[in-house]
Write a structure and sequence with these properties.
This protein is α/β, with parallel strands linked by helices and 147 residues long. The two termini are 27 Å apart. It has a 5-stranded mixed sheet with strand order 2-1-3-4-5, with helices on both faces. It contains 4 helices and 5 strands, in the order αβαβββαβα. The longest helix is centred in the N-terminal third of the chain and has 18 residues. Keywords: Signal.
């Protein structure tokens, strides 16, 4: 069941790929140069695939973000063994296109196994964050659903 829900979160991002690129907001709350550099390398690699548009901030959004609406929000807290991958809670499920990297796998590799990716399917905290982001308009649309 856990893998099915994780697949749902990843597939929700993939449905944006069918109509364009996945818009990813990275919230970098880290405090060390090493972790910040890992995040920069991660962002550059995701953009290089052509499947992602990446924006970043160092503070948690509290209102719709000036950079637009996003399909996913990646929160990297300062002191945690987790990385929270937030997605709209209710989205249509479509299979991911062939050749697209698995985002959770890429994230875990980027941190060298020191952090574990958690999605709304895995943990209550990313589920609550996802609901908050939908409510304040970070995901876009009136109900937070991706366009």
């Amino acid at each position: 069941m856990k893998r099915l829900l994780l697949a749902l979160a990843v597939a929700s991002a993939m449905c944006a790929v069918a109509t364009g690129q996945v818009r990813l907001l990275i919230v970098d709350e880290t405090e060390t140069i090493e972790e910040s550099m890992r995040i920069e390398v991660l962002a550059r690699r995701l953009v290089a695939t052509g499947a992602f548009v990446v924006r970043a901030t160092q503070t948690m959004p509290t209102a719709p973000w000036n950079g637009g609406e996003f399909d996913l929000v990646l929160v990297i807290p300062a002191r945690s063994r987790f990385v929270w991958l937030c997605a709209p809670v209710v989205v249509p499920v479509q299979p991911p296109p062939a050749g697209l990297p698995s985002l959770p796998d890429v994230l875990e590799l980027a941190f060298g196994g020191t952090r574990e990716v958690r999605t709304p399917a895995d943990d209550l905290y990313p589920l609550l964050l996802s609901s908050l982001f939908a409510r304040i308009g970070v995901f876009g649309g009136d109900d937070g659903a991706m366009r």
